[in-house]
């Protein structure tokens, strides 16, 4: 592979765009009231689908990261994309709670869990000189997606129904991520940006030892970070899963206004990620 000055920015663009598409779980709450009303499901039953998605997403992340290293980020993304887009598409045919858990929770969750660790680490390897800002910008893509798509998805739900919207979104994700995955290529071993000389602290980071899964779980810092991230993300993910129903049932807003609440929440999330990363 020939590396040019534009190569790493092409990788960044591909990673950012896939993050925009695969962040659809942030507006899954839009489907709560339509689906629970149509099939008589309880809110707790519906919420467990999101819980299943997040659990599988995190668990499969280990596999996605390993496959990205052994195969390639692009192949891993395509595998994950088939599961992710297929899960969303099949969710459009779910008429029972077990089907919802299998299609959305297991399939879509596994797909998202394979795509993410194949993308962000790849982008960071291309930007050792600005890893903090790049990480924030990539994460911002995950917030920008729901900000843009929430009102659009709600309009589709209102006109086409929740199930048909799931099917259409599945196709959109398949085409969108599939169209940009070719841009994401692995960084050559030992590559550094032209003219960049790492500082002492940056050089120390570059020389940090890589751990495999077995070695990682034996370190104390892994378990400390795991517990920290569980508690740090708990409140946010609970809000994400029920923002639309809260706005409609507790505040008395209509469905489109509730979708705008989801957009505002994710916009604030995006600004916070970019601001903190650039500050650091």
Description:
The chain is an all-alpha fold. It has 11 helices and no strands. The protein has helices at residues 7-22, 32-39, 43-70, 73-91, 97-126, 131-160, 162-180, 200-206, 213-216, 220-250, 255-279. It is globular and about 60 Å long. The two termini are 33 Å apart. The model has no long low-confidence stretch (mean pLDDT 85).
Low-confidence stretches: none
Largest sheet: none
Average residue-wise pLDDT: 85
Number of helices: 11
What string, H for helix and E for strand, traces the elements in order? HHHHHHHHHHH
Specify the overall morphology: globular
Strand content: under 5%
Could you give the count of β-strands? 0
Q: Could you tell me the radius of gyration in angstroms?
A: 19 Å
The residue fraction in helices comes out at over 70%
Kindly report how far apart the N and C termini lie. Answer: 33 Å
Structural class assignment: mainly alpha
Name the descriptors.
0% strand; 280 residues; single chain; 11 helices
Q: Could you give the topology of this structure?
A:
Elements: H1 7-22, H2 32-39, H3 43-70, H4 73-91, H5 97-126, H6 131-160, H7 162-180, H8 200-206, H9 213-216, H10 220-250, H11 255-279
Helix pairs in contact: 1-5, 1-6, 1-7, 3-4, 3-5, 4-5, 4-7, 5-6, 6-7, 6-11, 10-11
Entry summary:
Helices cover 78% and strands 0% of the residues.
């Amino acid at each position: 592979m020939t590396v040019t000055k534009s190569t790493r920015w092409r990788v960044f663009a591909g990673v950012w765009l896939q993050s925009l598409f695969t962040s659809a779980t942030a507006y899954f709450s839009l489907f709560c009231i339509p689906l629970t009303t149509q099939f008589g499901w309880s809110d707790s039953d519906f919420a467990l689908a999101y819980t299943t998605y997040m659990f599988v997403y995190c668990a499969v992340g280990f596999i996605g990261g390993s496959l990205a290293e052994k195969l390639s980020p692009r192949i891993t993304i395509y595998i994950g994309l088939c599961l992710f887009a297929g899960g969303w598409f099949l969710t459009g045919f779910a008429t029972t709670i077990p089907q919802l858990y299998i299609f959305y929770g297991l399939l879509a969750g596994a797909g998202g869990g394979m795509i993410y660790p194949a993308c962000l680490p790849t982008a960071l390897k291309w930007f050792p000189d600005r890893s903090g800002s790049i990480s924030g910008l990539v994460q911002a893509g995950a917030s920008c997606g729901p900000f843009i798509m929430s009102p659009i998805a709600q309009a589709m739900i209102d006109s086409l129904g929740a199930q048909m919207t799931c099917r259409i979104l599945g196709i959109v994700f398949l085409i969108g991520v599939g169209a940009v995955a070719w841009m994401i290529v692995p960084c050559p071993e030992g590559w550094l940006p032209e003219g960049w000389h790492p500082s002492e602290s940056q050089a120390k980071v570059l020389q940090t030892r890589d751990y495999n899964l077995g070695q990682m779980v034996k370190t104390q810092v892994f378990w400390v970070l795991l517990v920290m991230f569980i508690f740090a993300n708990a409140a946010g993910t609970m809000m994400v899963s029920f923002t639309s129903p809260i706005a409609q049932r507790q505040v008395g807003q209509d469905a489109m206004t509730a979708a705008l609440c989801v957009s505002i929440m994710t916009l604030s999330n995006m600004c916070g990620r970019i601001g903190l990363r650039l500050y650091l």
